[in-house]
């Protein structure tokens, strides 16, 4: 599913944060529902300095 997500890091972060804000209570819930490998997603975003904050339920 990662290939169906935006490839640009800023667009990917924005897309994931929108989904987390509007549809999912956690990153695990998003990954399970969208069939996304959480480790791959976090690794890709961390390469650009983005980190998931569970208490805020978003990447920054």
Task: Walk me through what this model shows.
By secondary structure, the chain is mainly α. It has three helices and two strands, in the order H-H-H-E-E. It has one domain. Strands 1-2 form a two-stranded antiparallel ribbon. The chain is globular and about 25 Å long.
Q: What's this entry about, in short?
A:
The chain is mostly helical.
Helix-strand sequence: HHHEE
User: For the largest beta sheet, what order do the strands appear in spatially?
Assistant: 1-2
Overall pLDDT, averaged? Answer: 95
Strand content: 5-15%
Per DSSP E runs of 2 or more residues, the count of β-strands stands at 2
Task: Detail the poorly predicted runs.
Answer: none
Give the termini distance in whole angstroms.
22 Å
- Characterize the biggest β-sheet: 2 strands, antiparallel
Number of domains: 1
Rg value: 10 Å
Structural class: mainly alpha
Shape: globular
Specify the helix fraction band: 40-55%
- Count of separate DSSP helical elements: 3
Structural features:
two-stranded antiparallel sheet; 7% strand; mainly alpha; 60 residues
Q: Secondary structure elements and their pairing?
A:
Elements: H1 9-22, H2 27-34, H3 38-46, E1 52-53, E2 58-59
Antiparallel strand pairs: 1-2
């Amino acid at each position: 599913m990662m290939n169906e997500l935006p490839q640009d890091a800023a667009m990917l972060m924005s897309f994931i944060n929108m989904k987390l804000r509007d549809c999912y209570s956690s990153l695990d819930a998003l990954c399970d529902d969208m069939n996304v490998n959480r480790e791959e997603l976090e690794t890709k975003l961390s390469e650009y300095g983005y980190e998931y904050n569970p208490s805020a339920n978003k990447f920054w």
